[in-house]
Amino acid sequence: MGCYSKDPVQHYPSKLLESAVNEFSRLPGVGRKTALRLVLHLLRQAPADVDRFGNSLMKLRSEVKYCTVCNNITDADVCAICKDTRRDAGLVMVVEDIRDVMAVENTGQYRGLYHILGGILNPMDGIGPEQLNIESLLSRVSSGEVREVIMALSTTMEGDTTVFYLFRKLSPFQLPVTTIARGIAIGGELEYADEVTLGRSILNRTPYENALAR
Which member of 50, 74, 134, 191 has the lowest number of beta carbons within 10 Å of its beta carbon? Predict the structure, then answer.
């Protein structure tokens, strides 16, 4: 039997069109057909609209900042969540990335602060402790202001490994380390959990030592 390509070679009438499709298709989850549809859509828009679209992307890349406290994406040195004096600075929830912060915020069930790791431990992909924002977490805890660290990482093998590693790193500080309840399905990604389930998982969090005892 012959082998058939899932993505047959396409012939473009313009090198500029082909170049734009190539760039769009580099985005996660965007195949060449979708990329072509997006590029053709842009071609049908007014030049001013396309300029505004392009400028927003360039400004995003050149001007966006990361919060010096929690590593959240922000327009200033410190994000709005960390600056909010109404939030409980003694609670720090550890999450993988910005999408998890958005998911938790949508529940309306959490009024503490966050710490974004920027990923989870995955030796197969070359992601070790040095690639994550772990030292800054330890520095925050050492200040004495944090009274509880909540682990809210995806319930995958990599997520659980990361939680265990952080638990060991935090043990000298002798403060409670809790995890969100397993209302989140085993192997589930935090960002895809519905708001009610995620909210209850936060409210019903449990000491991490309980998970180790199982």
Answer: 50
> Rounded to an integer, what distance in angstroms lies between the CA atom of residue 76 and that of residue 64?
8
H or E segment to which residue 179 belongs: strand 177-179
- Closest to 205 measured CA to CA, from 174, 182, 171, 173: 182
Instruction: Show the domains of the chain with their CATH numbers.
Output: 15-63 (1.10.8.420), 79-212 (3.40.1360.10)
pLDDT band (50, 70, 90) for residue 196: low
Q: Measured between alpha carbons, how far is 110 from 144 in angstroms, rounded to an integer?
A: 21
Q: Is the whole-model pTM more than 0.70? A: yes
Cβ contact 91:113 at 8 Å: yes
For residue 199, what are its two tokens? 């909210």
> In the Cβ-directed half-sphere of 148, how many Cα atoms lie within 13 Å?
17
Angle separating helix axes 15-24 and 32-43, nearest 10 degrees: 120
